[in-house]
Amino acid sequence: xxxxxxxxxxxATGGLPQVTTGQILLGCAILLVWTGGFxxxxxxxxxxxxxxxxxxxxxxxxxxxxxxxxxxxAAFLGLFIATVALLKEPLRAxxxxxxxxxxxxxxxxxxxxxxxxxxxxxxxxxxxxGLGGWRPRHxxxxxxxxxxxxxxxxAAALVCFGVYYLxxxxxxxxxxxxxxxxxxSAGQQLALGALAVLVAPVCEELLFRGVIxxxxxxxxxxxxxxxxxxxxxxxxxxxxxxxxxxxxxxxALAWVYERTGSLxxxxxxxxxxxxxxxxxxxxxxxxxx
Length: 289
What we know:
- With 289 residues, the chain is an all-alpha fold.
- It has helices at residues 21-46, 48-54, 66-92, 96-120, 136-168, 176-180, 186-220, 222-235, 243-260, 263-286.
């Protein structure tokens, strides 16, 4: 059986995998989203008026100093290593709920790092990081930015997966969470989904866009700051083959934050992306993908 062969291959179709109607519909929906996102991207590049309507300019707050950002990043790294060392075995003993608990602990570590950055970096609270009042227009900005970034993230993933296959001669491994989810109960999957969609976007955007990107942006300019924060964002997901597509997503998150001045827009984009990934996983499981 070749590396791309499906376990559902049918000898009557010459060894080709069986494809269900649901899978065809899902593939068409994904293609439609990517095509629409590409068209919207081209239109937004060509039309300043459209960009202003979708992502109205907003002023940025005062991000933490570079010292505060470095303290926060060092605290995150140190606390992450410490919690893994101290809690790995106790959480493993809890089985599936230990996986869920580990996810919430990691987000708590991020919040501690953000708090240290703000208090030591002369920032003026969360509002200075762009987390001021939410407005309905932020939802439109997030959704349109997601449409524009979806095809870019896919293209980056396609490049990475293709290079991996050429080198390793096998399909790339799935992200850790995708390997873990099938082993969890329905309640555990629901809790992990809530973490991914409701909690992680706020915590991670505070650290990577509010603190790290914000402090670097003031000194290096947009593209170096967005790239650096994007690569760090990809690296913490502990899946080397996914670093590039996650970094591309990180740059898109930084761009929408830069454009609107509100961290809520990048939080919304992040939440939509995570919700889409979770929905694809459950849909594929339901339809036998």
